[in-house]
Every structure is written in C-alpha cells, then in structure tokens.
Amino acid sequence: MALRENQPLSEVGEFELVEAIVDNFPQGEHVLVGPGDDAALVRAPKGHVVVTTDLLVEGRHFRRDWASARDVGHRAAAQNLSDVNAMGGRTHTLTLGLTLPGDLELGWPLEFARGFAEECAKVGASVVGGDVTRGDAIVVAVTAIGTCSVAPVLRSGATPGDVVALCGRQGWAAGGLTVLKRGFRSPRVLVEAYRRPEPPYDAGLQAAEAGASAMMDVSDGLVADARHIAAESRVAIDLRTADLEIPEPLEAVGSALGVEPMDFVLTGGEDHPLLATFPDAASVPEGWRVVGSVGEGSGVTVDGEEFAGAGGWVHF
Ligand SMILES: [Mg+2]
Question: Binding site membership for Mg(2+): which residues?
C-alpha cells in the first residue's frame, strides 16, 4: 500500500515508517553497514571518536506552530553537529530516535527527516540508524559521532592573557523567538535564524588549527556559556560590549519591543556560534571577532562589571 503524507501514524506500520524515514538518509562511503542490522558499522578515521547526544522535546524546545517539521529537523541536526564542531571536530555519523504521537500525520516525520538530512549533508555526515516509538509528545533524540583531525579543543584550556573570540551569529535566534512569542512573524531573518540556526561548521577545525586554547558552542547564552569556560579553565573572563556586534534586525526588534538589543546578544541561545580563547589576537583566525579577554580569578564580567541579567537559558 502506498503511503500518504497526511496519513496518521497509527495507520502506518513501524517498518513502513522506518523505511520511509531511512529513504532520506544517503550512506557515506565510511559506512560499512548502514540501517537494517542490529547495529551500524562505521570505519573509524582516527584513534578516537567524539560523541555527543541531545534531546528536543515538543513544547519545551520547539512548537509545531512556530517551526515546520523541516525546520525542527534542521535544528535537531545542527545542535549536535555544532557540539562536535565545538571540539574542533567534524561529525561523520549520527543516530536518530523519534517518539511520535499516533495521530501525527506521516508527513511530519518525513519532512523532519528531509530537514535533518539536509543539515547533515552540510558536513557530509550519514544517519546510520535509530528507533521510533509511539508517545504523547514528539521527542527527538540525536547522537552524533565525529572525529578531530587535530587535538580536540576542550573548555578547560584557557589561561590568563588569552583573548576571547566569537565566530558566527549571536542573539539572532533569541530575537526571532521573542518575536514569535509576541505573535509576530517578522523580521523574517530573525525568525528564520531561530528556526534554522547556521553554525559555522568550518570554524571549529579552523580554530583548533590556529591554536585555540579552549572552545565551546554558545547554545544557552553568551554570558552563561562563557561561565562554563571560566569555570572549567579556572580563570576569569571579561566580555566587551563595544566589540559585540548588534545586527540591524536586532536593533529594529529592540526598539519596536522596548528591549535592549545587547541583551539578545549577551543572553540569547540557540544560534550555536563558537566561543573560543586564543593565546593572542594575532592567532585569532579570519572570520572570528575578539570580544573579550581572559584574566586571573573566576566568573564572567561584562565591561568589567558583574552581569546583572539572568545570563541565559535555564534547563530546569
Ligand atoms: Mg555545546
């Protein structure tokens, strides 16, 4: 029987659903055994693997009326690819778990799979397996596996005297989410940034090769995530607002909604730019912006002052 995208999943068999999803995932040449056996078999390119996992829960991390299935697919892949990127690595393999309500139409997981595949294609990664099960809300569980061609960059390597640098958009997704929460759909560029983040997938390796001492991706907020580097490295970090860019659409949203646009930049999450420390300004690669400095002590300050705001996304 041919499947229709408006068919409720309760009428679609598990194997038919899995087959329809897997159809979207081309297998790279490093995949020795792809979907279909008890486990996949993947050639390991180096003497280590980089592994990360992430959950997205409907209602908590996305809303179906704010983002299409394809957008959620992009985002679910992007946040995992970004975590490997933040080690200075590149993802080659992913697995995908989906909990789906029975009354959900088949089109949702298929569109999700298309978005997921499109995002994975940006780094040449293959989706080699996963699982589906029925549940009350949509839950997406992603595991990404990658490798670093140079020494992985941890959060713990920053030392006093280093400079702090940022690569990629920051604050855009928070601007988009704020707009959506107020019932608006524009500026479109910010809403799109929230729906489909664009992590700088080449910048992780670039930073590692340039000698980055510490690195992470900004998923919870610039100040909040800088605190992680400060804590893990046992140093103090000062961010300078004069060096943080406020893009024009954030200025516009700020003045329209009466919000200080720098707050989006300092506390916004989900854009997945990279935040790294380098031994000096001369070693900061092209495309990165120096936004602060590392000193003795602990914690994060903004322009030398204690930061008063919440700092970022709180998970619990
Ligand atoms: Mg991360």
Answer: 38, 52-54, 83, 131, 217, 220
Q: Could you tell me the distance, in angstroms and rounded to a whole number, from the CA of residue 87 to the centre of ligand 1?
A: 9
The pLDDT of residue 97 is: 98
Please, what are the domains in the chain? 9-147 (3.30.1330.10), 163-306 (3.90.650.10)
- Residue 245 pLDDT class (50, 70, 90 cuts): confident
Q: Which pLDDT value is given to residue 3?
A: 87
pTM value is 0.94
Extended beta strands in 79-189, E state? 90-100, 126-134, 139-147, 163-167
**pLDDT digit string, tens, across residues 158-213:** 999 999 999 999 999 999 999 999 999 989 999 999 999 999 999 999 999 999 99
The H or E element spanning position 74 is helix 69-85
Task: In whole angstroms, give the CA distance from residue 314 to residue 302.
Answer: 20
Cα of 103 vs centre of ligand 1, distance in Å, is 33
Q: Which segments are annotated as binding site for substrate?
A: 61, 270, 313
